[in-house]
Specification:
Blueprint lengths: L1 E6 L2 E4 L4 E9 L6 E7 L6 E7 L5 E3 L7 E6 L4 E6 L8 E7 L2 E2 L3 E6 L1
Parallel strand pairs: 2-11
Antiparallel strand pairs: 1-3, 3-8, 4-5, 4-9, 5-6, 7-8, 9-10, 9-11
């Protein structure tokens, strides 16, 4: 079992920034990516970004590339998603995923 706890969501004005955290515990494995997904109201869940467990490699969805940065603190077993230049279209519940395990999600609301 892997436990994932997201935090850092909130309300921010368009153009602002937020940093999300995903704290992992339990049977974590270097075989897994850690991924961020998001789900906006009425839409399907979509991929945002991922990072290898050792933090060496990252990959981003085209919609966030250049604005979002995924990183990992190995000592804390925590993955971060730094989100800059936020737009209304970034409003969603953001989820962390590792293997088949999901966190509970954290709400990000971007206001005009």
């Amino acid at each position: 079992q892997v436990q994932l706890v997201e935090s850092g969501g909130g309300v921010v004005q368009a153009g602002g920034s937020l940093r999300l955290s995903c704290a992992a515990s339990g049977r974590t494995s270097s075989d897994y990516y850690v991924q961020w997904f998001r789900q906006a109201p009425g839409k399907e869940r979509e991929f945002v970004a991922r990072i290898t467990w050792n933090g060496a490699a990252t990959y981003y969805a085209a919609s966030v590339k250049g604005r979002f940065t995924i990183s990992k603190d190995n000592a804390k077993n925590t993955v971060y998603l730094q989100m800059n230049s936020l737009t209304l279209q970034d409003t969603a519940v953001y989820y962390c995923k590792m293997g088949v395990f999901w966190g509970q999600g954290t709400q990000v609301t971007v206001s005009s």
